[in-house]
From TrEMBL:
This is Acyl-CoA dehydrogenase family protein. It comes from Actinacidiphila acididurans. Residues 127-221 form the Acyl-CoA oxidase/dehydrogenase middle domain. Belongs to the acyl-CoA dehydrogenase family. It comes from the Bacteria.
Length: 383
């Protein structure tokens, strides 16, 4: 029997989508990227442009009013936005992270209500899993949800919540039965206006400064019982299934940041003259660029392979999602660091975008599970 090959190429539609998002990102998002970083302000212009063009939450299925983009299209959208502004790429990425638990496990009523609102641009979605003492060890969370008649009452603190304060909707994992460990955790939708919900001061971060990261406080937040996502006790598994899919979007973000850095450095070395010629003519520089492009392409192929698994919800997605996130983020860190090096002293200044890209790349090795946790996940799910 002839061997079977799984050739993978992006389709013409995917490449048309890439061209469209690239044009939009260059026209409407790139002009603000440096200032958004410098001021540490939310990129409202990006949100407006993405919502106006239905690119803020492309993963939402058509049934719920979304554009029903496949996982690879979502990756391409995030990649192209991150190429010019990593902070802005967190709008579609975290909208997917926050709402995917509803999409994967929520009732029809919750899906219609919240995925619909997200698709219509009525509010962004954040994801609340981590706590001050429960980061990598997510099962050790303390936030409690206690049943009281037809309501659940939430108390606790979530930390490192991306887009907190800006988002209208929050998927929150909380302990409903402390004796059952991971099987005693449930997921809920909490709204910004629910009484008792408040936010901490924005964290002062190294990068992605345009995307607010804050603590979220739950002080007797009472929500109707039908806001539970799926059955009681399934919240941790839903949170992990979500991350299997969305780690692919962090890989996409890493690819975009790295591509932005490589594109900029490629242009610079042709212009910059030393020793009487463009530095692009020196073999030492050429070898650096070749390595950067090679690593980026390897990361892209792994990420797109993971996106295909995400789309089909294959059983090896857990491995592929972790591998893509880990590999692409490590590649982005190396590539952006080398891109700064190619610009020499200029790369180290804020007059050029590369130091921002290098700072932004760092978070991709940390969030949605550190790259050490990705290796734990891969080792437990070896293909
Ligand atoms: N899909 C579905 N269920 C999953 C799963 C997945 N990918 N991964 C784990 N689970 C389930 C397990 O099957 C287990 O269920 P049962 O007890 O019913 O068998 C349960 O979840 C607990 O899993 P496990 O025993 O593996 O938990 P551990 O505490 O050993 O470790 C890790 C889990 C470390 C992998 C997890 O806590 C993790 O991913 N941590 C990082 C969290 C993270 O990414 N934080 C970033 C926040 S988002 S910015």
């Amino acid at each position: 029997m002839a061997a079977e090959f799984d050739f993978f190429r992006t389709s013409e539609e995917h490449e048309m989508l890439r061209d469209a998002v690239r044009s939009l990102a260059e026209a409407k998002i790139a002009p603000y990227a440096a200032e958004v970083d410098e001021a540490g302000r939310f990129p409202a212009e990006a949100r407006e442009a993405l919502e106006a063009n239905d690119l803020h939450a492309v993963h939402v299925p058509e049934t719920y009013g979304g554009s029903g983009a496949d996982a690879l299209s979502t990756v391409i959208v995030i990649e192209e936005i991150a190429r010019v502004c990593a902070s802005s790429s967190l709008i579609p990425a975290v909208n997917k992270l926050g709402s995917l638990p509803v999409q994967l496990a929520g009732s029809e009523e919750l899906k219609t209500r919240y995925l619909g609102a997200l698709a219509r641009g009525e509010g962004m979605f954040s994801y609340c899993l981590s706590e001050p003492d429960a980061g990598s060890d997510a099962v050790s969370m303390k936030t409690r949800a206690v049943r009281d008649g037809d309501s659940w009452v939430l108390n606790g603190v979530k930390r490192w919540i991306t887009n907190a304060g800006v988002s209208q909707f929050y998927t929150v994992m909380a302990v409903t039965d402390p004796d059952k460990r991971s099987r005693g955790i449930s997921a809920f939708v909490v709204e910004k206006d629910d009484e008792g919900l408040s936010f901490g001061a924005p964290e002062k971060k190294l990068g992605i400064k345009g995307s607010p990261t804050r603590e979220v406080y739950f002080d007797n937040v009472r929500i109707p019982a039908d806001r539970m996502i799926g059955e009681e006790g399934t919240g941790f598994a839903t949170a992990m299934r979500t991350l299997d899919h969305t780690r692919v979007t962090i890989a996409a973000q890493a690819l975009g940041i790295a591509q932005g850095a490589l594109d900029y450095a490629k242009g610079y070395v042709k212009e910059r003259k030393q020793f009487g010629k463009a530095i692009a003519d020196f073999q030492g520089i050429q070898f650096m660029l070749a390595d950067m492009a090679m690593k980026l392409e390897a990361a892209r192929q792994l990420t797109y392979a993971a996106a295909a698994r995400s789309e089909r919800a294959d059983s090896d997605l857990t491995f592929f999602g972790a591998a893509a996130k880990c590999y692409a983020s490590d590649a982005a860190m190396e590539i952006t660091t080398d891109a700064v090096q190619l610009l020499g002293g200029y790369g180290y200044t804020r007059d050029y975008p590369l130091e921002r890209m290098m700072r932004d790349a760092k978070i991709t090795q940390i969030y949605e599970g550190t790259n050490q946790i990705q290796r734990v996940v891969m080792a437990r799910n070896l293909p």
